[in-house]
Structures are given as C-alpha cells and as structure tokens.
Design brief:
Blueprint lengths: L11 E6 L1 H5 L12 H4 L2 H4 L2 H6 L1 H15 L6 H12 L4 E6 L5 H5 L4 E3 L2 E8 L5 E3 L16 E5 L9 H10 L2 E5 L8 H10 L3 E6 L11 E4 L2 H17 L1
Parallel strand pairs: 1-2, 1-7, 2-3, 7-8, 8-9
Antiparallel strand pairs: 4-5, 4-6
Helix pairs in contact: 6-10, 8-9
The chain binds zinc ion (ZN).
The site of zinc ion has 7 residues, from loops.
C-alpha cells in the first residue's frame, strides 16, 4: 500500500469526502447503472429553475432519495473518520463532505461541514428557516409560515454553503485528505490544488486515480473502507508513541 504520512499533535487535518465513500454503503452515485438518476433527468430535478417550474416533481425525487437514505448504513471508512476525531480530540480535525446523506453523522463524526446541503433538512422559500425533517414529507411541504419548503440542497447553478470558510480551512491545514471524489466537481476539486499551494501535504484515497492525481503527494488506490481504517490506525499510533 505504500508509506503513510506521519502526524503530530500540532497537525491540522482537513478531510474532504465525496460520493465514493457513500457508494461503499450502497448510496447510488450519479453514474451508477440503474440508479435513481437514470429515472430522472438531472436538470429537471436538481436546479432552481426545475423547482420553480415543477416543485412537485422535484419533491417526489427528493422524497424518494430521503426514503432510500434511511436504509443505508455507515461503512468502515465513515467509522474510521469518526474514530479518529473521537480518539484524538487534541488534534485539529474538520470533515468537509460533498455528500448530502447522514452517514458521517450517524457514524459519530461531529465537526462536519455539508457543503452541498443535507437530504434530511428543508429550507423555507419565504422565511429561509432551515429545519431537520426526519418524517415523511408530502410532495409540496409547507413551512409553519405558509411558505413552500425546498430541499436544503445545493443545486446545479447554486453556490455551495460556506465556501469562504472552507477555503480558509483548507488554506490553514497541514494535511489534506480527500476520499472518494473523482476530482471533477468544483469547487471541491480545487481544494486539493488550493491546499497544496498553501503548503499542505495532500493525500488521496479512491477506487481509481482522480483527475487531480497530480496534486496528491500520496495516493492510495482501493476501497476507502479498507484503506481508511489502516490510515487512522497509523495516525493514532503516531501520537501514542
Ligand atoms: Zn417559513
């Protein structure tokens, strides 16, 4: 598998996870054969224009994903990241995810930034209130203020949440670990380059070499569920010794 990079108690770590880590739990990705994305045209369900034109269709799609999301469980990769955060509370550790599922939180991760939103949350189109809604929702759910609710998800053409802060975190970290991303979706893909430019050691874990492989100091090819537990064991042992 190759050597692992060492850490100290002063190492600031930022992790970025993408669809690949959830795919190992059975969450369908955009490109999966037979996935829900095949039944729907992306542009007709995941854009502000789509919601404007047919909110019912958009909600039907998201309600299906919400339902499907309830049946998936975190995998060893999610648990490894949560374990790292729990065992080494003195290490500066933040987890940014492009995923909209609940798997990191369910595994026990605390310092999680959902840059593309969360399936379990709604946002009012009138009063902007964001709410966690774990119950089953109708096809046109409404806020207590009467406004139409929308999924608290970043759609195509919208700006990811907290981008300025995320760039700053990446800029200040010493070690940037990217897991399960194709290196194609911006701005997340640019984080690796940004981190590298500001002196971070960059580490990637993915089933196949990502597009931004050139910017990774270390790259481990394979399942995150197999590699991350070993990586985290190594880091925990760095601080034990
Ligand atoms: Zn409202």
């Amino acid at each position: 598998m190759g050597p692992f990079v060492n850490i100290t108690r002063r190492t600031k770590i930022v992790v970025l996870t993408g669809a690949g880590i959830s795919a190992e739990s059975g969450v369908p990705t955009f490109r999966d054969k037979g996935g829900i994305w095949e039944k729907y045209d992306l542009m007709s369900v995941a854009t502000p224009q789509a919601f404007e034109g047919d909110p019912q269709l958009v909600w039907r799609f998201y309600n299906e994903r919400r339902k499907q999301g309830k049946s998936v469980q975190p995998n060893p990769a999610h648990y490894a990241l949560a374990r790292f955060e729990r065992l080494l509370p003195e290490v500066d550790f933040a987890l940014i995810t492009q995923n909209v599922d609940h798997l990191h939180r369910e595994a026990g991760s605390k310092n999680v930034y959902h840059m593309h939103g969360e399936l379990s949350k709604t946002r009012c189109t009138r009063c902007e209130r964001v709410e966690e809604r774990l119950d089953e929702l109708p096809d046109l759910p409404r806020c207590s203020c009467g406004g139409l609710l929308r999924p608290h998800i970043v759609w195509f053409g919208e700006i990811p949440f907290g981008t300025d802060k995320l760039y700053q975190m990446v800029e200040e970290c010493d070690l940037f670990l990217v897991v399960g991303t194709s290196g194609l979706v911006h701005p997340a893909a640019g984080f690796v380059i940004h981190g590298k430019r500001h002196g971070a050691v960059t580490v990637g874990v993915n089933l196949t070499p990502p597009e931004n492989r050139l910017y990774l100091d270390y790259f481990y090819e394979g399942k995150a569920g197999e590699i991350l537990p070993k990586l985290v064991n190594h880091w925990v042992s760095c601080l034990d010794s």
